[in-house]
């Protein structure tokens, strides 16, 4: 489609205006010689086939205007196919130029002697006038091209905005919505065209204009509470301003639904690195624990995991979550002992804006809301203060929470896994733990025995952590001295698997020789014991057992003692001193 054809309405208007002012007929063709507009006898003959007038061809080729007073006879007309039917008496022809290109021809035609006289009398003025009309049409073409370009850019931008998952709302500085993408309209539940013109503070009831301006000045992010026809829109909003020179012209808000944020956290934060075979240990005790976890994963009931610190309670809780139907939803963990009592309530249940002095703008969701649809792991539940135990019980019964300072209950669907190393039954007797809460959280009990009661698991754990930390420290060791290995097997492990993992990491990191040696192990275990004085006996006992085993193997003779000291990696003097101590006991 030619450039002139795209503005054919304008072209026809110009043709009609010229004809009525000058009293002659007008015809306008495009650069392919198709008639785009015409008056009088030309009016009904538009765009069917290219016209064959050789005069128009010449104007298009030369880009210069022509006046002829003898159509049919003029030398230009000699090549014209319609020459013998030509009824025209005079013509003034002018090219229509757009930049360097000639995009059409505009012509005035006289069919009567009066028209011819009028035309020829003012021929040069008329050529000049036609030149201006041609310029007018050329500028219309440019305008049309710009409009098409702008429309293309607008479509591109709209597609872009509607492709992003975040909601986007543009507004003026008074909060009046100017534009919005489909994601925002969908989140709010109102059609985009209905939102345009509405003030944002009418959509988000908790927002004021002052608040909006302050947030946008600081490019702030926060939750905006919002109730839409009884539905709570839980989203995170970020505000930015846009300016023209130094003046702020408007504000853009981006919205993300909490549900989406939680899905991302859940997907990328956890789902990918959690597998049931991460629980190591083939002892009967551990096999029973693994079986219990896999059974609990098939249910939706509350699980209470009990065991000493470092036995792997959190690991079991994560594996349980990942093996359950909730695996694509969040797993949120909170350690009730690590957070001061006063903060624990807000951490669990969240708060609304203005709930207390210093409360964050827009409020904050609690762990219950973040875990919605997934699992909440309440570690060290035995440390939860009594008043909060009562509130937790109510939430578990009613399956809804109320943020601190909030007025509306928020429904939550959360599976609870709790863990403790405390003697909860004794705490119940002492009035420190609510019995009714205990029944609620202990529907499915799982007990993890301490490492010292399942020593069969030690070899697999030792070799796993050795492998893990050799890779981490980019080292390759030839293994471990027998004495060192035996000490690890005999030690009491009061800190359970966590302590074992820490010690092996330390041993791998400091070892400069090819094998992990007994003195390093003894030294490290000794220091571990110093941190927990109650466990000193177990280290001493392990050491005694080792030395006596070596003596039994190599015999009490001088040579045997020398061999035992060498195998244990200690000096003969130390061996004699130790043996003297044992003899005194
Ligand atoms: N059976 C196991 N197999 C492999 N790794 C384990 C095992 N048990 C524990 N671990 C590892 O030991 C470390 C401590 O485990 P975790 O934090 O789960 O213990 P916990 O009982 O929850 O401790 P706490 O009561 O102190 O919170 C983690 O690095 C965990 O991966």
UniProtKB/TrEMBL annotation:
Gene Ontology molecular function, alphabetical: ATP binding; sequence-specific DNA binding
Coiled-coil portions: none
CDD domains: AAA, PAS
Superkingdom in the source lineage: Bacteria
BP terms from Gene Ontology: regulation of DNA-templated transcription
Domain spans labelled PAS: 153-201
UniProt KW keywords: ATP-binding, DNA-binding, Nucleotide-binding, Transcription, Transcription regulation
Ranges where the Sigma-54 factor interaction domain occurs: 279-509
Pfam families: AAA_lid_14, HTH_8, PAS, Sigma54_activat
NCBIfam families in the record: sensory_box (TIGR00229)
Protein name (Swiss-Prot/TrEMBL): Pas fold
């Amino acid at each position: 489609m030619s450039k002139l054809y795209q503005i054919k309405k304008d072209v026809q208007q110009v043709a009609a205006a010229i004809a009525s002012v000058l009293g002659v007929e007008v015809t306008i063709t495009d650069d392919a010689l198709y008639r785009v507009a015409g008056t009088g006898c030309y009016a009904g003959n538009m765009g069917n086939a290219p016209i064959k007038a050789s005069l128009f061809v010449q104007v298009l080729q030369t880009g210069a205007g022509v006046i002829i007073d003898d159509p049919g006879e003029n030398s230009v007309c000699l090549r014209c196919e319609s020459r013998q039917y030509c009824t025209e008496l005079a013509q003034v022809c002018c090219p229509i130029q757009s930049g360097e290109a000639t995009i059409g021809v505009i012509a005035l035609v006289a069919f009567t002697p009066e028209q011819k006289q009028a035309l020829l009398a003012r021929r040069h003025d008329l050529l000049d006038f036609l030149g201006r009309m041609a310029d007018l049409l050329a500028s219309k073409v440019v305008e049309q091209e710009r409009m098409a370009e702008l429309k293309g850019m607008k479509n591109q931008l709209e597609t872009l905005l509607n492709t992003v998952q975040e909601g986007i709302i543009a507004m003026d500085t008074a909060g009046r919505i100017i534009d919005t993408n489909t994601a925002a309209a969908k989140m709010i539940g109102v059609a985009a065209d209905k939102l345009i013109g509405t003030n944002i503070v009418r959509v988000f009831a908790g927002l004021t204009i002052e608040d909006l301006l302050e947030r946008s000045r600081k490019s702030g992010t926060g939750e905006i509470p919002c109730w839409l026809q009884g539905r709570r829109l839980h989203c995170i909003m970020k505000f930015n301003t846009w300016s023209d020179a130094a003046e702020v012209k408007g504000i853009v808000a981006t919205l993300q639904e909490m549900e989406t944020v939680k899905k991302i956290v859940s997907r990328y934060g956890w789902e990918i690195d959690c597998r049931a075979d991460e629980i190591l240990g083939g002892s009967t005790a551990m096999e029973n624990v693994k079986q219990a976890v896999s059974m609990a994963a098939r249910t939706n009931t509350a699980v209470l995991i009990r065991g000493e610190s470092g036995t792997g309670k959190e690991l079991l809780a994560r594996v349980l979550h990942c093996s359950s139907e909730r695996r694509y939803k969040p797993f949120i963990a909170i350690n009730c002992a690590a957070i001061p009592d006063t903060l624990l309530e807000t951490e669990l249940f969240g708060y609304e804006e203005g709930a207390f002095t210093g409360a964050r703008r827009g409020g904050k969701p609690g762990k219950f809301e973040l875990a919605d649809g997934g699992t909440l792991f309440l570690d060290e539940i035995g440390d939860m203060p009594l008043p909060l135990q009562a509130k937790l019980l109510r939430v578990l019964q009613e399956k809804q929470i109320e943020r601190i300072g909030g007025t509306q209950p928020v429904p939550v669907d959360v599976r609870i896994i709790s863990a403790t190393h405390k003697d909860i039954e004794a705490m119940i007797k002492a009035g420190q733990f609510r019995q009714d809460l205990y029944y609620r959280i202990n529907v499915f009990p799982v007990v993890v025995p301490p490492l010292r009661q399942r020593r069969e698991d030690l070899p697999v754990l030792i070799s796993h952590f050795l492998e893990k930390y050799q890779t981490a420290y980019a080292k390759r060791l030839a293994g471990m001295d027998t004495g060192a290995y035996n000490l690890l097997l005999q030690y009491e492990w009061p800190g359970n698997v966590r302590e074992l993992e820490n010690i092996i990491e330390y041993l791998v990191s400091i070892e400069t020789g090819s094998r992990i040696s007994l003195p390093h192990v003894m030294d490290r275990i000794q220091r571990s014991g110093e941190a927990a004085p109650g466990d000193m006996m177990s280290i001493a006992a392990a050491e005694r057992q080792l030395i006596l085993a070596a003596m039994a193997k190599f015999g009490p003779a001088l040579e045997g003692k020398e061999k035992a000291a060498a195998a244990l990696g200690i000096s003969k003097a130390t061996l004699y001193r130790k043996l003297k101590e044992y003899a005194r006991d």
